[in-house]
Amino acid sequence: MTHRNLIGGQWQDGHGVTLNVNPSDTGDVIGDYALADAEQARAAVAAAAEAAPGWARTTGAARAEILDRAGEELLRRRDELGDLLAREEGKTLPEAVAEVVRAGQILRFQAGQALRLTGEHVESVRPGVEVTVTREPVGVVTVVTPWNFPVAIPAWKIAPALAHGNTVVFKPAELVPGSAWALVDVLHRAGLPAGVLNLVMGRGRDIGDVITGAPQVSAVSFTGSTATGERVLRAAQAHRARVQLEMGGKNPLVVADDCDLHLAVDLALQGSFGSTGQRCTASSRLVVMDAVHDAFVERLGAAMRALTVDDARKPGTDMGPVVDATQLEQDLEYVRIAAFEGADVIGGERLERSAAGFYLAPALAVGTRPGDTVNREEVFGPLASVIRVADYDEAVEVAGDTEFGLTAGLVTTSLARATDFRRRSTAGMVMINVPTAGVDFHVPFGGRGASSYGPREQGAAAREFFTTSKTAYVAAGDPRGVRRP
What we know:
By secondary structure, the chain is α/β, with parallel strands linked by helices. It folds into two domains: about 1-245 and about 450-470, Aldehyde Dehydrogenase, Chain A, domain 1; about 250-430, Aldehyde Dehydrogenase, Chain A, domain 2, CATH 3.40.309.10. Helix content is about 40%, strand content about 25%. It has a seven-stranded mixed beta sheet, sandwiched between helices. α5 links the parallel β8 and β9 (about 165-170). α2 (about 60-75) packs antiparallel against α4 and α9 crosses α10. The longest helix has 21 residues, at about 95-115.
């Protein structure tokens, strides 16, 4: 069976197919998925534009019912869809099931938001005139998502777009079409009218510029690499579309000399190697104060070696494979670069398992300097670097020494330091005694600098991107009696 694109309410074959391969076992083909071409991408944009006026006129209650119904189905099918996610992306089965649950929760939360779209009634400076400020949908929204969270990230973009009355053209990452197709199928069967949600699975080089640069597109929400984000920005702004970009991260976790060392190791282990380190919020720079450095490195190294790296769906697996061969080679190259620049690298070897897959031992680069390559560039794999610092003030300075600004963490038992770090950090999200990776779905998500561009994602903050304001002046009486400004 070929999984087809959804355009204008109809499932359509593509112009070729891509095979969805299991990174835990490359002999396991999950299925074939249709590849859309530029013509189909243009048709998807046209379908969304045609459906936009009707969907914008629907009530919030009607939109809420559809999203809530879809969210309930995701929660009901969490084990089945979690298995699919783990199979195609490579994160462990518990992580994958948890991601499906999160997607279901996002849909249900945004269903509620469809009924909470409030406005303002403002006193005019002129007697006899009423002023109202309301929020309205922006129109057609293009959604482009990455491979590392193949159901949660699409959900947190698509759900608020639909909740606030927009239509959507959705392009998922080529490596993970299965979870995206399943999400769209659930939403489609939940009752979305034709053209409100369109799925185009295809190569970015074939359809990316079409779905971001089409004049009918009013907004583009993108998560992915910095280089691709810059291209999306140029294409969308050429026709003055609003743009929301979530891109890279080089997130610090500061380990203070007053920390609970057991907690610090646990947070570093989760933040650096959870999801095989393939997340923009990963703790990729461990900034450790001198007094606890050696003990921290020793304990973290032992904890890393105790991790079971194996098939993502196998019981007892702590870390699954890297997503594909290209990513694996990139990770190995960064391990080589770290060693060449003088780091003492613990782990980082290519691993063999019972089935052919893209397995890599977690890696820790000890003795790095702030200017080293692994501390400047996003690796997006299970490699963390350690930077030794003398004291707290140096730690804060080193933590902020990056072009990125997504998350920043601190492990401490000092309330004063926790408060100071929260205020001085230049990241968009600050984590005190919790992992840098792992966020709630009902609060804003986003960073600063090279990490993010445009309004925040998730929670109630999503309405800032997916709606536009309208100010209306109404004369209550005879307009001839209204004094002109």
